[in-house]
């Protein structure tokens, strides 16, 4: 959620994690919201032992399994750092205090959730309608920074293809 972080400043706790650190495991309840100062995170699901990347997050983004964070139900996905990452963290309890006292945050949260839903729908429809090359072209057009910063095997997973297929698509460009 890109919002004015000053609202959270008194509640933040800094956290620095190396690459490949699991911040939340699929099936566990999310107790923390993460605000990325520097670095990159991804969300992913486990499908028969295979990791399928569902989203990437960068500087200025907030990340949590919002559904789990707000309902105390198990998360549908894992959150992991892709590169060394500097975060500010916020607990459920502190988030609720802020939310109860901040109508502008409630509005920002609504907008954030709508944006995430819209992005998820776009990706789902892209899987249904487009071939892998078209999905890659859309990724380059909408999010070129992902291709510049994220390892190819995560991008392939995100696009629903193998790393070999992604290499072929990239070589044909």
TrEMBL record:
Q: Which SUPFAM superfamilies match?
A: cAMP-binding domain-like
InterPro entries, A to Z? cNMP-bd_dom, cNMP-bd_dom_sf, RmlC-like_jellyroll
Cited CDD domains: CAP_ED
Name all Cyclic nucleotide-binding domain ranges. 11-116
Domain of life the protein comes from? Bacteria
Which protein is depicted?
A: Transcriptional regulator, Crp/Fnr family
């Amino acid at each position: 959620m890109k919002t004015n972080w000053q609202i959270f400043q008194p509640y933040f706790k800094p956290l620095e994690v190396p690459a490949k650190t699991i911040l939340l495991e699929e099936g566990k309840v999310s107790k923390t919201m993460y605000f990325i100062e520097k670095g990159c995170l991804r969300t992913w699901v486990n499908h028969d032992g295979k990791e399928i990347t569902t989203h990437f997050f960068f500087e200025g983004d907030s990340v949590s399994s919002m559904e789990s964070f707000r309902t105390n139900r198990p998360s549908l996905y894992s959150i992991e750092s892709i590169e060394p990452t500097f975060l500010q963290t916020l607990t459920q309890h502190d988030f609720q205090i802020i939310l109860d006292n901040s109508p502008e945050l409630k509005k920002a949260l609504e907008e954030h959730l709508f944006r995430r839903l819209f992005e998820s729908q776009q990706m789902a429809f892209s899987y249904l309608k487009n071939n892998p090359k078209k999905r890659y072209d859309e990724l380059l057009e909408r999010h070129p920074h992902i291709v510049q910063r994220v390892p190819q095997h995560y991008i392939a997973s995100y696009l629903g293809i193998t790393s070999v297929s992604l290499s072929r698509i990239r070589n044909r460009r």
